[in-house]
From TrEMBL:
Gene Ontology terms: cellular component: cytosol
Segments forming a coiled coil: none
PANTHER family: ARGININOSUCCINATE LYASE
Family, as annotated: Belongs to the lyase 1 family. Argininosuccinate lyase subfamily.
Species the sequence originates in: Roseofilum reptotaenium AO1-A
Catalytic activity: 2-(N(omega)-L-arginino)succinate = fumarate + L-arginine
Keywords assigned: Amino-acid biosynthesis, Arginine biosynthesis, Cytoplasm, Lyase
Gene (name only): argH
Protein name according to UniProt: Argininosuccinate lyase
Location in or out of the cell: Cytoplasm
Length: 463
């Protein structure tokens, strides 16, 4: 049996040690300590401000709490499982430091509104960090795009060669995805930044507290309007896990492309030694472990989203201990997204090299200019569907003859349709095929340059 617990004298005996371990969250919610202390400082200041405790008591509490944080940071304060959770641990240590006044900290508060406050402060902070990382990721992709406006790469649909692209256009697609990720986090942050503090255990409190005062001290934008909702809402964590899942979808898709590109079958990129690993048995191998891990870790983030949704679905109002189990999912989501963003940013910044000659060879050796032949005829007045059918036939006969479209003689073109002139060769060259797609948002070089400028100017804005 462990020592007698923090709660009331209603309890005669201590918890069974295994149950104490099972019940405790200190092993993981210690992650919240700096936010727990910040929340407690604001609460103590509010108690003094409203006269619920004296100004001097308020000051002693604030100083004591600051000392607890310093002790923790210096490694001198290391709470163990008998503290149960971070909230009890801090309060207990505070009371050791300040004596009886420490016992006043929990006036007009419950661990239920406290843990909700801590979790929001933590997540608000981490969202800010992830947003900064997303900007860095974008910057790296934009730099890479800038160097590769004129580099061509095959574009695919169904993983079949479709139409050639500017490599910059391809990279900027990921900048757009991460822009939505950035905007989504900005939006989620609005609902993270609401104070539940002062909701009490579930029903509010008998003390004349000022919830707006503590909320303001903590930088919250507003307070929960309903105390039951305040202590039991975890929508913000789910919304975050959903946004995190989408970030992972995007990183994983890019990871998958890098894996394909680095294969012997594609050979579009070479992985640099700083970001690739070898095999313990096959000496010739260079493996794309970084993008593979990113793709793999995506699964656990999706799992956390699912876990949080299921955690919440059957909970009657208000607080239930099930809610303690949101933390590991949330912390792991944050850590995984941060680690994957960092790794992918390094990989794209310095871990791979595109192979221009191989890319050029790829875009020249296929029929991805077939649409342009149809467009050529359509521009000369041939109805598009008719032109499309004709080009289908040309592709078929060329394939049979082992030729590409560029290998057909002008006589052969003219035999197919009298509208063909010598300018057909220019019209179907990969460079022209790309340049011609100058519609807004297309891969034409002018469009890509504009998209790049826009993406770069967005980097320094807060929208
Ligand atoms: N460790 C708990 C959690 O994370 C704190 C709140 C406990 N509240 C309670 N009524 N037992 O949810």
């Amino acid at each position: 049996m462990t020592e007698k617990k923090t709660w009331s004298d209603r309890f005669e005996s201590a918890l069974h040690p295994a149950i104490a371990r099972f019940n405790a969250s200190i092993g993981f919610d210690i992650e919240l300590i700096e936010y727990d202390i910040a929340g407690s400082i604001a609460h103590a200041q509010m108690l003094a401000h409203t006269g619920i405790i004296s100004a001097s008591e308020g000051e002693q509490l604030v100083e004591g709490l600051q000392q607890v944080l310093q002790e923790y940071q210096r490694g001198e304060f290391q709470p163990t499982v008998d503290a149960e959770d971070v909230h009890f641990a801090v309060e207990r240590r505070l009371t050791e430091i300040t004596g009886d006044v420490g016992k006043k900290l929990h006036t007009a508060r419950s661990r239920n509104d406290q843990v909700g406050t801590d979790t929001r402060l933590y997540l608000r902070d981490r969202i800010g960090k992830i947003k900064t990382q997303l900007r860095e990721f974008q910057r790296v992709l934009i730099d890479l795009a800038e160097q590769n406006i004129e580099t061509l790469i095959p574009g695919y649909t169904h993983l079949q060669r479709a139409q050639p692209l500017s490599l910059a256009h391809h990279l900027l697609a990921y900048v757009e995805m991460s822009q939505r990720d950035w905007e989504r986090l900005t939006d989620v942050a609005k609902r993270v930044n609401i104070s539940p503090l002062g909701s009490g255990a579930l029903a509010g409190t008998t003390f004349p507290i000022d919830r707006h005062y503590s909320a303001k001290l903590l930088g919250f934008e507003r307070v929960y309007n309903n105390s039951l909702d305040g202590v039991s809402d975890r929508d913000f964590a789910i919304e975050f896990a959903c946004s995190a899942s989408l970030i992972m979808v995007h990183l994983s898709r890019l990871a998958e492309e890098v894996i394909l590109w680095s294969s012997e079958e594609f050979r579009f990129v070479t992985l640099k030694d700083s970001c690739a690993t070898g095999s313990s048995i096959m000496p010739q191998k260079k493996n794309p472990d970084v993008p593979e891990l990113v793709r793999g870790k995506t699964g656990r983030v999706f799992g956390h989203l699912q876990g949080l949704l299921v955690l919440m679905k059957g909970l009657p109002l208000a607080y239930n201990k099930d809610l303690q189990d949101d933390k590991e999912a949330l912390f792991d989501t944050v850590k995984t997204v941060q680690a994957c963003l960092e790794a992918m940013t390094i990989l794209m910044a310095e871990g791979l090299e595109f192979r221009p000659s191989r890319l050029q060879e790829a875009v020249e050796s296929d029929f991805s200019n077939a649409t342009d032949v149809a467009d050529y005829l359509a521009a000369k007045g041939v109805p598009f569907r008719e032109a499309y059918n004709l080009v289908g036939k040309v592709v078929k006969t060329s394939l049979g003859a082992g030729k590409l479209l560029k290998d057909l003689s002008l006589d052969e073109w003219k035999a197919l349709h009298e509208a063909f002139e010598a300018d057909i060769y220019e019209a179907i060259s990969p460079r022209q095929v790309v340049a011609a797609r100058n519609s807004y948002g297309g891969t034409g070089f002018e469009q890509v340059q504009q998209a790049l400028d826009m993406a770069r100017s967005r980097l320094n804005s807060d929208t």
